[in-house]
Write a sequence for this structure.
């Protein structure tokens, strides 16, 4: 009976945490005006998101042991993120194009590539994250690393200009009328062999 | 009997239904296959994706730093690399050994050999890889971690494993087997309800445009848009169906009359996602989890009794 009570308590805590994670995700979508709900709901959703985050101890300091304990448990159980895949709407597709400038004045265009399809899916996830605001602090470092991975294959390149942007696909009716996707640049970086400067 | 005691008895009856270990065999073999396929799919890019800065795609350190910011207790590949360094092992060697161990643990799980240690090693190594490559991770990684987490805690080995043939261990507690199956079942109900609810809140799932965008978005664009256009009237129906099937999963999967239909619909949806979008790992892990949770017929006292209460 005692062991059953322990299992039941674990069950309760486990799914309480999962509920908080899932609700935080849903409320976040509503607060960001990503849903069909009226904008009047946004303020309440933001407050509800804060409550859900508080339950996960995310408001506590980074070194708080309760926050670290909960975060470790959630990651260990694979439930640190919610389950709103491709929801409420399918996210934009992003593309990183690299212009390679050679010493002799040649310019080549290169895109990132991996060998397997499984890795290509992961590269796509990375580009999705580059567009997210919360990754802004590491954006330049990430793009620099990606540019450097291409640089290793083209050691005689003098400078690389990286352009990141969203690809806007046509709607079905537009596609039927022959409209193609459009590219909307979001930001760019220049990297040279010795230094790099943000544009 | 007081109301509180009566409620507690009902809770325990729900949480500890007696079960056989057939569902656990499905989860164990399915996750073994999943881990093996995961390792084989990433074989050619393993070092490129998880090497440190200057050697790979973005460098493992950024993922490690993000995980460590969440909590320094979250395991990453850097732990293994540091351990390797202490015995003069290079980073390349540690990465290669990690890959080989992950593949081996998947094969061991598939066969049911050293089931518990294999489940723990698979969970730990996959977690390290998923955290170090956190920026490169997607939904399949979270579900793999969850499924391996539950598998590692479940009462292994099951009767279909080699372990049971080699060492004559006694039958596991049926109520404990039922408890871990309940955990998996309830978890899936959360997954689909939240996923369905989030989809219902997007306008694009009601008019079919989200399905269109999902299927033409590289690298998921395995089906030509010209073919999709021919089914333009089916897309809104499919989009609405996905929303309704997912959001009603926590109810319909428990009811005896609707269980089989819902299970088939969900399995078909994941099979279609795998085949039409190339998300093979995601499809496989979801199919394995659903089959283990609801696919195997219930024994006396299992979830089959729930809808009669």
């Amino acid at each position: 009976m005692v062991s059953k009570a322990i299992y039941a308590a674990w069950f309760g805590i486990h799914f309480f945490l999962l509920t908080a994670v899932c609700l935080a995700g849903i409320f976040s979508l509503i607060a960001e005006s990503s849903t069909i709900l009226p904008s009047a709901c946004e303020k309440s959703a933001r407050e509800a998101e804060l409550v859900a985050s508080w339950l996960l101890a995310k408001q506590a300091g980074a070194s708080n042991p309760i926050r670290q304990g909960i975060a470790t448990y959630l990651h260990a159980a694979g439930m640190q993120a919610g389950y709103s895949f491709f929801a409420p709407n399918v996210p934009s597709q992003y593309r990183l194009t690299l212009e390679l400038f050679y010493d002799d004045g040649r310019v080549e265009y290169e895109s990132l590539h991996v060998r397997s399809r499984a890795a290509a899916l992961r590269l796509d996830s990375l580009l999705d994250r580059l567009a997210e605001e919360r990754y802004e602090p590491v954006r330049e470092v990430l793009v620099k690393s990606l540019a450097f991975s291409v640089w290793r294959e083209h050691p005689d390149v003098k400078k690389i200009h990286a352009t990141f942007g969203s690809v806007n696909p046509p709607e079905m009716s537009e596609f039927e009328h022959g409209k193609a996707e459009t590219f909307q640049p979001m930001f760019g970086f220049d990297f040279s062999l010795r230094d790099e400067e943000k544009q | 009997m007081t109301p509180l005691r009566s409620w507690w008895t009902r809770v325990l009856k729900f949480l500890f239904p007696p079960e056989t270990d057939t569902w656990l065999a499905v989860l164990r073999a399915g996750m073994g296959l999943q881990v093996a396929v995961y390792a084989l799919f990433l074989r050619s890019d393993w070092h490129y994706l998880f090497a440190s800065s200057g050697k790979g795609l973005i460098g493992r350190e950024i993922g490690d730093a993000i995980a460590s910011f969440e909590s320094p207790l979250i395991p990453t590949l850097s732990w293994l690399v540091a351990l390797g360094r202490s015995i003069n092992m290079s980073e390349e060697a540690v990465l290669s050994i990690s890959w080989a161990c992950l593949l081996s643990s998947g094969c061991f799980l598939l066969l049911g050999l050293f089931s518990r240690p294999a489940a723990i090693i698979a969970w730990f190594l996959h977690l390290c890889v998923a955290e170090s490559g956190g920026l490169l991770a997607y939904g399949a990684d979270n579900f793999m971690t969850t499924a391996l987490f539950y598998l590692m805690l479940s009462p292994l080995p099951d009767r279909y494993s080699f372990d049971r043939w080699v060492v004559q261990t006694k039958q596991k507690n049926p109520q404990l087997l039922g408890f871990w199956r309940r955990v998996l079942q309830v978890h899936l109900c959360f997954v689909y309800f939240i996923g369905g609810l989030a989809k219902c809140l997007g306008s694009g799932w009601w008019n079919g445009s989200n399905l269109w965008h999902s299927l033409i978005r590289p690298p998921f664009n395995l089906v030509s848009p010209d073919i999709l256009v021919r089914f333009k009237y089916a897309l809104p129906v499919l989009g609405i169906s996905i929303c309704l099937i997912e959001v009603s999963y926590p109810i319909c999967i428990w009811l005896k009359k609707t269980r089989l239909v819902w299970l088939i619909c969900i399995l078909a949806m994941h099979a279609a996602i795998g085949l039409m979008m190339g998300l093979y790992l995601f499809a496989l892990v979801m199919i394995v989890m659903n089959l283990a949770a609801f696919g195997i017929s219930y024994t006396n006292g299992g979830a089959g009794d729930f809808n009669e209460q």
